[in-house]
Amino acid sequence: MSLKSWQNCFSILNIGFVLLVIAISAAHAGVCDVVKDGLVACYPFNGNANDESGNGNNGTINGATPLADKSGNANSAYSFNGTTDYIYIGKPVPSSVATTAAITLAAWINPSAYPSSSSDDTIYVGLIAGSQCDFCGTSGAAIHLDGRNAQYGGVRGGIHFQIGLENIGWTQTANEGITNVAVPLNQWSHIVATWKSGDTKKVYINGQLATNWTTIWTGNIRYDSNTELAIGRQADLGRYFNGSVDDVRIYNRAISEAEIRQLYDSGSCAYTQAQLDQAVKAEQLKWDANGDGRIGLEDIIRMLQVIAGLRP
Known about the structure:
- The protein has helices at 3-21, 257-267, 273-287, 297-307; strands at 39-43, 60-62, 65-67, 77-81, 86-90, 102-111, 125-130, 141-146, 159-165, 169-170, 189-196, 202-205, 208-209, 229-231, 233-234, 239-240, 242-251.
- By secondary structure, the chain is α+β, with helices and mostly antiparallel strands.
- The strands form three sheets. Strands 1, 3, 4, 6, 11, 12, 13 and 17 form an eight-stranded antiparallel β-sheet that branches.
- Strand 11 (189-196) and strand 12 form a beta hairpin.
- Helix 1 crosses helix 3.
- The longest helix is centred in the first third of the chain and has 19 residues, at 3-21.
- The protein is elongated and about 70 Å long.
């Protein structure tokens, strides 16, 4: 783990303890509370496929199986078999998620296998999340894991980020469409794709920019009444993702590089919730001067005095 990630974990621990001590809240901040501005859909997979953005676009699980997430928390991610599993969110795309002039798609993924390198367009990509629909006349936006070699400037195992714009069509050129950085198999990686009208498309892998695309795309994303929003499957062509997915987000804006790094750092802490809770409890006991098993007013005053340097 990087120094930044260790510092991030340590900060989470201290924040949790301070909240506990001052009795504002005993709970850690929710996943969807990180970078919340413009968040129109958020799926942290806390034992279900509910949308915790506040818009209520809950997913329906079709075959995907729950498993431990990247930090070992049980039932906090979903595994997809690459052939039939997916999470359905809505068709047509719910209006609260059908962002037009800008978009960010983000997810943690752990691919088990790359899609086929075959020329068969139904199997050479696997949809991670989004609403792409080829049979709907160039519609929606999505991120895929791509299995092709040397297509659209990318490599096998790269991220294919595609948007259907009104009056323009698909946002890809001969050299721009798939990252030239591959996502490794059998390990968790954080993927973020952003675009706003009048700008280039960008894809970030583990907080780092993975594209140097220069084409400016201007217009609005087109949505057809048959365009489906889903995780793990592009419905019209049967393009399925093979692997695990967690913390899927959609924004109605292109979030900044600093925000992308914040999302990556907040999700790359290697501690489980149970480990954090145990550490917070240990810290609580350290400040429990009279040994009564709780933090009282006297303990809080002592803690503040120590922080202010008024006592050892």
